[in-house]
């Protein structure tokens, strides 16, 4: 999507009136002249220092350092013309070039040496006998005044000039005062004449688009709503998990309304300098009012909109709170008839300050949830518009195999499938490419590691236990694939996904999930008489589901129909448990009971179907991977319809 400076629509070649950021007035010209002046002054200052200290400074002649005894030998030989003594250091010149030793290659007519610490009373007589000119310098002689002045004042003067230059540039801004350009908003303005996104590019969240149609209609026809005294919400808050399309739908609103769209991340408001965030908020709303009707979009609002309650303040105020207060003030300060609407997105609505959510600020809250199966199919159609698809591609089947995934995940799957097809030189993306992309996205890339025969067999039985129980337990999700090829952190994987999306879970279904998760551990115990560490991830899911059944959903007779969760999390993982220690012990006991009952049922089913377990494991060892149809053929359950095992609840 193309971006441009913060200007509104207008005829090409002519800046629109009263729009910031496009035309250069006298203030901008004076700032430019001032900047050029200070830059020129600094350059001249630096060039002068360089010329005085480098170009014009006299270059010292080449000199060698010789031992004191060599010096005396040269004096006695009549080769020394003159010497200069500065403290204990003696420098001088000779008639012919000398070196530190007679065979030294580095020689010169200028030399230096050091007078020994002990006295040498015969040196002066030796020098006079050989007609050597003797000069003496004061070792405490002060450097020239200009050099002292330059060394003492030069760095400070340079720093002062730099500070004056920066302050002049900062003070030149019309808003923010000394904050200057730091206080100008960094919002990106998307071209309303060339919208890069419309509602046609958004799928899977139809109810969200319906909610936002009213916003679009108001921006297009404000008088239609104002004639009956109605006012459109000042702010619309989009709430949903990451990747569900909150930013995309906000851009689509701007594209449909064909109005200036100012986009900025909430983290861009906050800087280390206190007051910059509030200044940027003022500048952003000022530009939006001048470009009205317009939309302001603030992404990741929770970065600056966190609740102020219970926060320890070390000072009177901080940057985050100042920025939040300014946003609250600006949203209160503009009239809905101005045609400025604030859209914001967050996936942490629970941490937002209550002042943001009250009527008059973000009046309307729209929840953007992950798409259902039909929504995922529609999203796949959008992302594959420019992708050549093979005849065997079934987008509905791909949507069925990706429950819980959001738009960003589906876009990544399409991209991975296209890259895989291009890597093998195909002219179109096939169904196998999508299947591999789904596995790579959800499970990770294949790992080429060498496993012993014993380990492969144990993994085959482990995954066969999962797969077989997925077919045997009523209410379990259908088994789509089982493999013993290592992927990501797993040595083997059993893929199960529901026929249709689920939004309500019965106790039978949850127990089926636990039994299926314990299938690998039960198979290892049945076949080998011991368990391994391979069930760690399975046990984590078992514990999580069983505890939530007891703590959140009241699926325990001893605990009763009570909810002991704290902010949506089970009690033991919360900061303060809302129950006593006795209740905590009872909860632990019930969680353990559910897990043990499911484990016993898993062992019983696998014992009864041991032949099918062995057959499935041996087939896996030969084939490495089996799809749903192959699993049913190997286990002899072709007549079993997975849809008949749905949760009776």
How large is the count of helical segments? Answer: 21
Low-confidence stretches: 1-28, 172-183, 567-575, 641-649
Widest sheet, order of strands: 1-7-9-10-11-8-12
SS strand fraction? 5-15%
Helix content: 40-55%
Distance between the termini: 48 Å
State the shape: extended
Oligomer: single chain
- What is the C-alpha radius of gyration, as a whole number of Å? 40 Å
Question: Would you report the number of β strands?
Answer: 15
**Total count of domains:** 5
Report on the structure:
This protein is α/β, with parallel strands linked by helices and 649 residues long. The protein has helices spanning 26-55, 68-76, 122-129, 145-171, 206-220, 222-226, 246-257, 276-290, 319-333, 354-357, 373-383, 395-400, 407-423, 431-443, 453-472, 507-517, 519-528, 536-551, 581-608, 610-623, 628-635; strands spanning 3-4, 63-65, 80-86, 89-98, 108-114, 133-137, 188-190, 235-239, 261-265, 294-299, 340-346, 364-367, 479-483, 493-496, 625-627. The protein folds into five domains: 27-55 and 152-180, no CATH class; 63-137, Signal recognition particle alu RNA binding heterodimer, srp9/1; 184-310 and 317-367, P-loop containing nucleotide triphosphate hydrolases (Rossmann fold); 373-443, Helicase, Ruva Protein, domain 3; 453-645, Peptidase M41 (Methane Monooxygenase Hydroxylase, Chain G, domain 1), CATH 1.20.58.760. The chain has 21 helices and 15 strands. Helix 11 (373-383) packs across helix 13.
